[in-house]
Amino acid sequence: MALLVLFTIIFDMSKITKLTPETDILSEFAQRLARIRKAQGYSQVALAKEAGIGVATLRRIEAGQDSQLETWLKLLKALDMAPAIDALLPETFDSPMAEALAGKSRKRSKPSPSSGIVWGDET
After folding, report:
1. Which of 12, 33, 68, 73 lies at a 20 to 30 A Cα distance from 51?
2. How far is CA 4 from the centre of its chain?
3. Structural domains present in the chain
4. pLDDT tens digits, residue range 65-122?
5. b/e code 11-33 from CB counts within 10 Å (16+ = b)
6. Based on the number of CB atoms within 10 Å of its own CB, is 112 exposed (0-12), middle (13-18) or buried (19 or more)?
7. For the whole prediction, is pTM greater than 0.85?
8. Phi-psi category of 42—alpha, beta or left, where left has phi over 0 and alpha has psi -120 to 50?
């Protein structure tokens, strides 16, 4: 249950849209990371040590400054949030638009004359 709550905190994308500037996204993720760290009882020093990164790096990330994806991966793994990594960019993606387009390309089959349906206009 706690993992689900933490997952929701970091990946609740309702505040983030296609038009959200990257700096705002980093700032939002930084705030979420700090909340998760605190919820799990980590100090910045303890989490940095667990993740194998420098404390200054963690402080920069929590300040919303640019960081490397590899560092985020280390932090998420240290927080036991590896499933969140997979959810960020899933292996398969079901696109409703792709499904709709695929449906258009399929030809509909006409009912066979032996279907037993008589409309009254057949000759």
Report:
1. 12
2. 13
3. 23-87 (1.10.260.40)
4. 988 999 999 999 999 998 888 888 778 877 787 778 877 655 555 555 566 666 676 6
5. eeeeeeeeeeeeeeebebbbebb
6. exposed
7. no
8. beta
Q: CA 62, CA 48: separation in Å to the nearest integer?
A: 12
Alpha helices in the chain (DSSP H): 2-11, 22-39, 44-51, 55-62, 69-78, 82-88, 96-105
Q: Is the dihedral of CA 112, 114, 118, 120 positive or negative?
A: positive
